[in-house]
Amino acid sequence: MQLIFEKSVPGRNGVRVPLSDVPKASPFPDALRRKEPVLLPEVSELDLVRHYTNLSRRNFSVDTNFYPLGSCTMKYNTKVTENAGGLFAGCHPFLPLLPGGERLVQGPLSLVHGLEQQLAEITGMDEVTTQPLAGAHGEMTGIMVIAAYHKARGDKKRKYVIVPDSSHGTNPASAAMAGYEIVTIPTAPYGDMDLEQFKNAMNDEVAAVMMTCPNTLGLFNPHIAEICAIAHQAGALTYYDGANLNAILGKVRPGDVGFDVIHVNLHKTFSTPHGGGGPGSGPVGVKKGLIPYLPTPRVQRKGDGSFAVEAHPEGIGRVSDFFGNFAIMARAYAYITLLGREGLIEVSEHAVLNANYIMARLKGEYELPFDQTCMHECVFSASRQLQDGVHAIDIAKYLIDRGFHPPTVYFPLNVKEAIMIEPTETESKQTMDLFIDVMLEAARIAREDPEALHRAPVTTPVGRLDETRAARAQQVCCE
Amino acid sequence: MGYCPNTPDEIREMLAVIGAGSIEELFAPIPAELRAKSFDLPPGMSEFELMRIMREKAAAGGAEIVPFIGGGIYDHIIPAAVDHLSSRAEFYTAYTPYQPECSQGTLQALFEYQSVICRLTGMEASNASLYDGGTAVAEAALMSLRITERNRVVLDASINPLHREIVTGYLHGLSAEAVEVAPDGCGSDLKRLIDSIDEETAAVIVQNPNFFGSVQDFSELAVKAHEKGALLIISGYPIALGLVASPGEMGADIAVGDGQSLGNPLSFGGPYFGFIATRKRFIRNLPGRIVGETIDNQGRRGYVLTLQAREQHIKRHKATSNICSNQSLCALRGLIFCASLGRKGFEELAVLNYDKAQYAKSRLTGVKGVSVMNAGTTFNEFTLSLPKDAAPVVEKLLACGVAAGVPLVQYYPGMDNALTVTVTEKRSKAEIDRLAALLEEALCS
C-alpha cells in the first residue's frame, strides 16, 4: 500500500485551521525561523480517512481475531470503559499544581486515589503510585525505590539484582537502568528458578530478587514464600513482576506471600487496550517500609475527605510529568469498579480454565516440556515438528492464514522452539475449539507437507518479510 | 456483568477434558497458606451505574476552566478525523507488532510517524515513540552517555523543571551527573553553557522554546559542544516547529519532546507520547522500538520492527534501554493530526499561535505595572513580571474560571512575581481580553 506521503498532491488542503480573530503580529524573526517548510503530506480529508481506514484493515486485533499472545495478556477490552476513559479529555494536568487549583480537579484526583486503593487491595500492598507509564517503567521505578531504601539505611554494598532465566527481558534491563548488576539463575526441572542455585547466589550484596508468579511458563512456584524469606533474611527485598496477575485475582496476593514491591500492567490485567504497542500503564505498589521512597508527588486524602497533591520529599523524585497515563488509569478504575470482587475472581478462574483446556487438548501433538496444571498460559515446544523441519515460526505463520493471531513464539528463552498460548477468560469454548483444530491441523501438515508451512502466510497483504534486509538497510523514514 | 462466555455445561465439558472435578482444583498448585488474606472490593455494577460514577468524577475535572497554562502540555485543536480513525478497533485493540504480516497497519503507520518526526525535527532517524516528553529527555541524556562514553550532562535550567527532575532521577542510579546552568533572565545563558562543557560532558541539553517561552538560536552552542566532543540535545514543542528553526537546522544531534500537542487530549496527564530523533549514525543507540522498511518473499514492500538486537528481549541487561513498548496509539494520533493539517495547515497553525500570543502579550503588558521578562522572541508562551506575587493573583483568577498562567516561584526560587502565560489557537480574542481585564482588576485590588 502507498504511503500517505505518496498520496500527497501539492496544493491539496486538509483540515482548515481556525481564522484569526486578532491583529496580525509583526513577522516572526527570520534568524529564528525554519528555512524549510515541514514536508507534511497534502491530502484531502477523504484521502486521509480512506488511507488510515484501509491501513487499519491490515491489522489483526482482539476485536477482529483470537489473539492468544502469551504473557502479553491480550484480553477483550470492554467498551464501556473506553467511554469512561474519554470523559477526562478536557482536564489539564497542571491545574492541581496551581495555587488553589486542587479543589477544581477533585474528580480526577479522587480517581487516582481510588485506583491506588483498589490496586493496593488487589495486590496486598500498603500503597501504590500510578506515575509509571508502562510496565517496564514500573519495574525501573520499583527498583529505584528499592535502591533508595537501601541507601537511606546506609546499606551501600548491595549491587546485584537476581532474576530467573525465564524472566521477562525487561526485568534485567530495568534493574540495569537503575544501576544494578544482574545475576541470572537457571530454571530447575520443576519449571522454576532453581532453589539451590538461588540460595548460593544470595548474600548481603544482593539488593533485590525480581520474579513473577505464576512465571512465564504459566506455572505457580510452590517455593515462592521460601524464596521471599531467604531474600529477606539476607536483607534483600523482593520484587513481583505483575505481568501475570490475571491468573490469580482474589486467589493470591503478592503482598501476602512476602513481596515488598510490585508493578501491575493495567493493559494486561485490567483490560485497557494496548493500541498496537502502547500506551500502557505500570502502577507500583509497596509495603509500608518503602512508602517514603515512592515518587513525588502523591495524591493524599485529607481529614475533610478532599484530595490534595502533596510533595513527597524523601521520594525518588518524579518518574513522569504528572499522575501517570491518566486516561488509561481511568479505564482500569472503571473496569475494576464494573466487575467488582466476584467479577475479578471469575476472570482468573476462567483464564485458568481456558488455558488448561487448550493445554489438555494440544499435548498429544505438541511437546509439553513442563507437564503440570498451568495457570493462565501454557508453553509448548515445537521440538517434535522440528524433526520434519518445521519451526515454531512456521506454525505461527500458518495460524495467520487461518485467521488466528499467533501465540508468542521463541519466548521464554529457556524452552526450545517455544509456543506460549494464553487464551484469557473472555474466549469461548467454540473459539478455542476452532483454534485447537487449526493447531492440530498444523501438526498434521508438519508431518505430511512441511513445505506448505514454510510458505505461510499466503493470505496476508505481504508474505514473510526480510528482517535481515531491514536491519541492514536501516530505512526508517521516507526520504 | 459477565464477560466470561462459557456456560455451566461447557465448563463441565472442559473440566472433563482436563481431568479436573472443578475449577477450584486447577488452583491446587497454590499452597493453602499462600491464599489471599483479603480481597475486599465492592460488588460489580451495570454499565449505567458505572457511567454515572465516572461522569460525576469527570464533571469535577476543571474542564470548564479557560486555560492559559501549558507547562509542557497544551490545549490545541484536534481534528475530528483523529478521534475517529484512532478509535478503529483494529488499531487500538492490537498489540506490539511482533508478527509483521498481520500487523502492517500498525507498522506502516509507525513508519509514517517516524517520517513525520524526522521532517519536523530535521533529523534522519526516529524511533516509534517513547512514553512522554520528560522521559524522552532522560532517554536522550542516557543515549548521549552511551555514544560518548562520558558521564556528565549539562542541563540548562530553563528546561521544563518537571523534565529536569526526571533526568536527574534517571542519571542518579548510574553514577552519572547532571550539572544545571541557571538561565540568564528568561533565556539560556549561552556563555555559561559553553563554559560548562568539559572533557567529561556527554551532552548539553536545552529546550526551544524554553519553559519561559523564549525562542533562541542554538547553532553556536552546537558548534562549541561538538568542538569538545559533546552532543547537543534540543527538547522542543512540536507545534512551534511549524515556524521555528528545527533542531536539525541548529545542528543538534538528538531532538526530543512531548508529542501531546499533536492530536492528543489533555486527559489530566496522559497518555501522551515522547518523540526522539537523531542522526543516522546514532541509530543503534536509539532507545525503544524502531520500524524499518523491507521487502517480502515476493519483492513487495513491507514494514517490520527492526534493529531488535538492541532490545531487552534479546540483550536483557545489556539492552540500550528497558523500554519494551512505545506509545503507538498516541503516535498514530500525532501522525493523523499532522497529515490532517498538511504542509500548509501546520505552518498556519504555528503562525496563529504566535499571533495570538503576541496579541495577548500586548494586551497584558498594557496593564499597569506588568511587563514582559523575555528579552527576545517568544512563541506561544511568555513570562510576565507582575507588580506583586504571582501566586495569589493566579488563585484569585482561578475563582473566576481562568487559569492565568504558571507562577514560576515554585520552580525558580526568587521569581515571586513571574507568571508564564500560554496562548494557543483555541483562545479567542474575547478570552484574552477578559484575562487582561481580570488581571487588571486583581492587581488593582
Automatic annotation (TrEMBL), chain A:
Signal peptide: none annotated. One of its GO terms (cellular component) is glycine cleavage complex. Residues 145-275 form the Aminotransferase class V domain. Keywords: Oxidoreductase, Pyridoxal phosphate. GO terms for molecular function: glycine binding; glycine dehydrogenase (decarboxylating) activity; pyridoxal phosphate binding. It catalyses: N(6)-[(R)-lipoyl]-L-lysyl-[glycine-cleavage complex H protein] + glycine + H(+) = N(6)-[(R)-S(8)-aminomethyldihydrolipoyl]-L-lysyl-[glycine-cleavage complex H protein] + CO2. GO terms for biological process: glycine decarboxylation via glycine cleavage system. Residues 348-442 form the Glycine dehydrogenase C-terminal domain. The keyword Oxidoreductase applies. Pfam families: Aminotran_5, GcvP2_C. Its EC number is 1.4.4.2. InterPro entries: Aminotrans_V_dom, GDC-P_C, GDC_P, PyrdxlP-dep_Trfase, PyrdxlP-dep_Trfase_major, PyrdxlP-dep_Trfase_small. The glycine cleavage system catalyzes the degradation of glycine. The P protein binds the alpha-amino group of glycine through its pyridoxal phosphate cofactor; CO(2) is released and the remaining methylamine moiety is then transferred to the lipoamide cofactor of the H protein. This is glycine dehydrogenase (aminomethyl-transferring).
